[in-house]
Write a structure and sequence with these properties.
It is built from 24 helices and seven strands. It is an alpha+beta fold and 678 residues long. Helix 8 packs parallel to helix 10 (194-210), helix 14 (275-291) packs antiparallel against helix 15 (295-311) and helix 21 packs parallel to helix 22. The chain starts with a helix and ends in a 6-residue tail after the last strand.
């Protein structure tokens, strides 16, 4: 790589010398040129001076546009206005680019030439996107999409769909974002555009990740990685790999996998020499090492990355992330003073970042309207500004002495009070930390109790079905020919029943674990509840028929509730399954709905063995010692009802049971009805 550097430098110097001489010669040509010839020379001059003198470059292009207007050459005028819009766009002058693009569209329409209209609308949409005006961006992209659909241009459509997905993702409308990325993927697949297929999958992964659907995000990031590998685009491969690391970090229980992905992404960025991307990956690496308890390694990486970010002025966003991570690591290490110092820096950079964003927004608004101002108003404002500056200079001389005296007084007062204030502040922080530590200690004790329950469940409830699976599978694998077909079928059925029990237990354990760690989100929608009841009854009907139990229900149609369908389905399935389990052969399970003012009460009544008062009191507790087998000796872990309680609580409802020994049981739970409010 080093041997090529002198050659590249020589080419660069030659280009600049050529550009400089080209500007001089073209400027001399202008003195003798008129009309279209002069306009073309001005545009060439504009391209040569874009980097060295942006204002002059813009001036050249505006003059060429004026020439086309005088010549009444609408075709050339449209092309020039379009090119001027691109020039402004490339310079980051998005608010100034948009009016030029719109003028170009008007000229193309007057000229009955629509070939470039879709491209121009796409450029307008991207300009609005970078200005943060996402609704306008969507409207422009839709116009571009209509134009490309009329032209049946699949390659252009896939590009527009990706842009639409990107805008909706920024708006937080992840459903619409996913819809457009899917369209982009299907269109790119037709044209066999591997690069856009990868970009579409990466966008789908990002949208699912932002919507906290981590499993789906993982699938799409893997697909994106596969496509980028096909075209050997290492930089995009690294982006997909880094995204995979983010997913595994958020899952919380796969930190080693996340670490591996971050390390792989870092090696690629290091090979490519992409220092900025290395800094972002290092922040992820530091977080993971901190979570894994390797504080020394975490501090080493975070300090190194922070130093690089500050030296290269990569912006407040990444710097405040590093300080936040350092504060977290120091706090875990028990170094409260360092944690507090890092936290102060984090707050400082966070506030600076927000201020920078506000200034950017203000600048964008100013640019948007600056060309609609009247020149006379600008001149008047400048004159007023000059008068104000003169007056300020006069006032400054009178204020200096008073300000100097006040500053001396403030320094003295500040020096005296700062020590006392700092002591109070540190004591307050330490007190808050102690309260937090005590709270975390209590929470940890509760988590340890839950963990012990998990171990108990795994030790007792997985043992028997696993023994059955191991025993029967051993016999079938070693003595298969010794058994008759009916024995083999029986063993296979027993293995199926045992693995089915293991699967249901593990599913309940997984759902309960997610609810405890906050990974199972409450996402309510309005849906018709009787459809769930029919689905669950159909699912459990074969099990009920084995015990000759009749499933009856009195459920009115058109009952809409506001809840998370998956959670309510899990609750109803567990309760009906328990009713069948604890009802003797020939019994009955009855499901009914009852409306109240704002809630719907669902009741499941059985003619089973019933429960005592002690059993009812411990029914929904994870610390419960009571565990009963079904009437046909069916196993149960007790986690199903605990999971039901968690889900009903998340969905703003209540759950309880009524029972007497020998007289069956009735389980009730409520969910909010669909109303105008929700």
């Amino acid at each position: 790589m080093m041997t090529k550097l002198p050659l590249l430098l020589l080419v660069f110097l030659s280009f600049n010398l050529f550009a400089s001489s080209g500007v001089d010669s073209l400027t001399n040509l202008l003195t003798s040129q008129t009309g279209e010839e002069r306009a073309l020379t001005l545009q060439h001059l504009s391209s040569l001076t874009t980097d060295s003198d942006t204002a002059q470059s813009f001036a050249y292009f505006r003059e060429s546009i004026s020439i086309y207007k005088e010549l009444d050459d609408l075709g050339s005028l449209a092309k020039a206005q379009y090119a001027y819009g691109d020039l402004l766009f490339d310079a980051g002058e998005y608010a100034r680019a948009i009016p030029q693009y719109r003028k170009a569209i008007e000229q193309y329409i007057q000229n009955d030439s629509l070939s470039s209209v879709g491209e121009i609308y796409n450029s307008i949409g991207l300009s609005y996107y970078f200005l943060g005006e996402f609704e306008n961006a969507i409207a422009s992209q839709i116009e571009a999409m209509k134009d490309f659909e009329r032209a049946s241009s699949l390659e252009d459509l896939s590009r527009i769909y990706i842009n639409m997905g990107m805008v909706y993702n920024r708006l937080g409308d992840y459903s619409s974002s996913i819809e457009y990325y899917r369209k982009a993927y299907k269109t790119s697949k037709i044209t066999n555009d591997i690069n856009r297929m990868g970009s579409s999958c990466n966008g789908l992964g990002t949208a699912h990740y932002n919507a906290n659907r981590l499993d789906s995000a993982k699938v799409y990031f893997r697909k994106a990685l596969g496509y980028f590998k096909q075209i050997d685009n290492e930089e995009r491969m690294a982006a997909a790999i880094n995204n995979m690391g983010n997913v595994y970090v958020d899952e919380g229980d796969s930190l080693q996998v996340a670490l591996s992905y971050y390390q792989t992404a870092y090696k690629i960025y290091e090979k490519e020499g992409s220092l900025l991307n290395q800094v972002f990956v290092k922040e992820g690496l530091g977080c993971v090492y901190g979570e894994l308890g390797n504080y020394k390694k975490a501090l080493e990486i975070l300090r190194e990355g922070l130093k690089t970010a500050i030296e290269n002025k990569y912006g407040y966003y990444i710097i405040q992330l590093y300080y936040e991570d350092l504060a977290t690591v120091y706090e875990k290490m028990g170094e409260i003073d360092r944690a507090y110092s890092a936290y102060k820096n984090f707050k400082t950079y966070l506030d600076s970042m927000r201020q920078e964003e506000r200034l950017f927004q203000a600048a964008a608004i100013e640019k948007k309207y600056e060309f609609t101002k009247n020149e006379a108003i600008i001149s008047r404002l400048n004159a007023e500004k000059e008068m104000t500056m003169i007056q300020l200079e006069k006032d400054k001389a009178f204020r200096n002495l008073g300000v100097f005296a006040i500053l001396i007084l403030l320094v003295i007062v500040t020096y005296v009070s700062f020590g006392n204030y700092n002591r109070k502040r540190v004591n307050k922080v330490l007190t808050e930390k102690n309260i937090k530590i005590e709270s975390q200690k209590n929470e940890l004790e509760q988590m340890n109790a839950s963990k012990n329950k998990f171990f108990s469940i795994i030790a007792h409830d997985l043992k028997n079905p696993l023994h059955s699976v191991l025993g029967y599978s051993f016999l079938l694998s070693h003595e298969y020919d010794r058994f008759e077909d009916k024995d083999r079928r029986k063993y296979a059925q027993d293995i199926y029943n045992s693995t089915n029990n293991i699967f249901r237990l593990l599913q309940n354990l997984l759902d309960w674990s997610k609810s405890q760690t906050g990974r199972l989100q409450y996402e309510p929608i309005i849906f018709e509840l009787s459809s769930l009841q029919e689905k669950i009854c159909n699912l459990l009907q074969p099990i009920a028929e084995q015990k000759n139990i009749s499933l009856k229900y009195d459920v009115p149609g058109n009952v809409h509730v506001y809840a998370t369908p998956m959670m309510i389905e899990t609750v109803l399935r567990n309760i009906v399954s328990n009713a069948v389990k604890f009802t003797p052969n020939g019994g009955e399970v009855f499901i009914s709905f009852r409306r109240y003012e704002r809630d719907l009460c669902v009741s499941v009544k059985d003619t089973g063995i019933g429960m005592s008062e002690d059993e009812l009191e411990q029914l929904f507790s994870i610390d419960s010692k009571i565990k009963k087998k079904g009437t046909n000796n069916e196993d149960g872990s007790g986690l199903g009802l605990i999971l039901c309680k968690e889900f009903i609580k998340l969905n703003k409802g209540k759950i309880w049971a009524e029972s007497q020994p020998g007289n069956g049981s009735t389980f009730h739970f409520t969910v909010p009805l669909a109303t105008a409010d929700n």
